[in-house]
Amino acid sequence: MNNYLEICKKCTKQLIERISVNNNDSLIEVIIRLRHPCGLKRPGQSVKDSQSVVQQEKQHAQQLMEKLVEYLHQLENEGAKAKLLDTSWLTHSVLAAVSPPILRKLAERDDVDIIDINAEIRGISLINGFSW
What we know:
By secondary structure, this protein is an alpha+beta fold. The protein has helices at about 1-5, 15-20, 50-75, 100-105, and strands spanning about 30-35, 80-90, 95-100, 110-115.
């Protein structure tokens, strides 16, 4: 586990705990949040309607996630224990299932800001008795 603590400084405490009880071959669902590079053009103030803002933000997110998505596809094609599950333009994050060795490689990337475990929320009760 000490090896992962040194290498995986971008991982949350919960993810590091999960790695410590997981074997190297098991996949872990993680959320990879990307760093915002300074040089990437953001939607400007001159946008006139909300649909244009959303469209521009989606394009920005696509540019931001493009290299990581390509990298995950490459790993999948090479037979590595990695699978791209989803992307989110709104949060600039990628959902993937990866093994601990692949997680280490992801944490070493400059475009990755933080990696967290994809945790389920259980035991939350809402008004009207609905819970999940």
